[in-house]
Amino acid sequence: MKSLECTEKMSDAIKENIIDVFTNHSAAMNELFLMHSTLNPDTFVTLKSESESRFSKNNVDIVILTATPIETNMILNAMRQQNTNKIEKIRAENGRAYHLSRLGEYNIAHIQSPMGSGAKETASLAIKKWNPKIIISYGIALGETPNKQKLGDVIFPTLIISYRDGKYSDGEIFVSKNAWVPNTDAYIRNFIDEYGTHCKPKHGFNLHSGTIIESPWVLSDPDLKEKFFSSIKSFRAIGGDMEAHGIYEAVQDSEREFGKKYCFMLKGVCDWAEEKNENVTGDEDEQDKIQLFAANNALVFLMDLLNDRYFLSLDINSSENTAAITRIKDQFHQHPKLIKKINESRDIIVSIYSYYKDTYKKDQSTLNFLNDFKEYGYCNNEYNLTEKGFLFILQLTDFNPNHYYKT
After folding, report:
1. pTM, 2 dp
2. Dist CA 174 CA 231 (whole Å)
3. What is the pLDDT of residues 262-281, one digit of tens each?
4. Statement: residue 293 has pLDDT above 90
5. Are the C-beta atoms of 262 and 135 separated by less than 8 Å?
6. Domain limits, the chain
7. CB-side exposure of 61: number of CA atoms within 13 Å?
8. How far does Cα 205 stand from its chain's mean position?
9. 271 vs 326: CA distance, rounded Å
């Protein structure tokens, strides 16, 4: 693994950021460090053969990839807290291991990849092994600048630009046109947007969405990082890591055989590519604690997503609703009043209910519309929306069920 080191001293802005984090979060950081330094997976993880495992290609929902021991321990500890002794370990084809358990509302397969380009092979093998609905790259990453971010803020990339195929010559960086847009749906994007508005007061960190760079090195040189970021100024990079683009390439390469997958990255800001060996607080475990703090914030976000039972309710490859989508969309176009109500009120259920309950006995076309809903299981005989119907409506709109649906 290459590392570009810097002899310059750490900036005052970063020092102030580190001091602020240790001043306000020292107890939590010490607790995380104790967990990390004492965690022994052998005491709660059971090695299984594939034939013994209760997990298979048919029931693993999500693959989570990490790249460092700190990231891995955060996931394993979350699994342990939810499942006690029900975590399984299965040997992977590349000599590594999968950890399998329930996490939130979903069956998870976790694996630690090598740092950097080796993540692509690990992701490819995981997709072939489990055929999950989604692949998540979780952990820690470098941020843009301490003037716009704080240690522990979380980044969610909407575009990834890789420098693995670029060129560095005479002090200048030439970027290849190697970019990737993460695969997400309207529900996930809305979840991210809404989360960003309340995560600071609720959890104490900010969420940043935008472009990230993928570097082939561990960056510890602010001048080189600035060259990277400046070369894509129009994209306004918010951070960078070493694995994301390779994982997305693996997802793209697998699409022909395994279908389209959702794939995205959630990582906490742990540095800004400046001098990492300078100790600011006098704590000998300063860097580990900062990384644990950043990884924990990313985990808070990840768990909020995994605890949402609608997260994977819409199957990205399902053909079940294809005919219904065509017919119901046609019906929507025939009912501009309904569209207007939805757009004005931004409340799906009130709009749908008030519209069809007022008009279905009087309007044959509306009755046909509702019968189509009933035929495909979207409403019952009394024309009340079923959960399947509600989720289908979301495919035609960009609303978040957390706002409009209560069980």
Report:
1. 0.75
2. 7
3. 888 999 999 887 766 567 88
4. yes
5. yes
6. 3-306, 322-404
7. 16
8. 16
9. 49
- If you count DSSP H runs as helices and E runs as strands, how many of each does the chain have, helices first? 13, 15
pLDDT of residue 364: 62
Q: Which two tokens stand for residue 165?
A: 């195929």
CA-CA distance, 223 to 231, in Å (whole number)? Answer: 12
Strand duo 218-219 + 172-174: pairing:
unpaired
Q: Which residue has the higher pLDDT, 36 or 58?
A: 36
Quote helix, strand, coil % in the chain, to nearest 5: 45, 20, 35
Q: Nearest CA to 4 among 164, 219, 215, 224?
A: 219
Alpha carbon distance 123, 220 (integer Å) = 26
Is the CB of residue 17 less than 8 Å from the CB of residue 146? Answer: yes
Nearest to 399 by CA among 386, 390, 389, 407: 390
* Residue matched to tokens 């119901």: 328
CATH fold of 3-306 reads Rossmann fold (3.40.50)
**Beta strands 179-180 and 154-162: pairing type?**
antiparallel
Amino acid at 287: Q
Closest by Cα among 142, 148, 113, 136 to 301: 136
Looking at beta carbons, which pairs linking 50-58 to residues 24 or more positions away fall under 8 Å?
A: 50/90, 53/88, 53/90, 53/100, 54/88, 55/88, 55/90, 55/100, 55/107, 55/109, 57/129, 57/130, 57/131
**In the Cβ-directed half-sphere of 181, how many Cα atoms lie within 13 Å?**
4
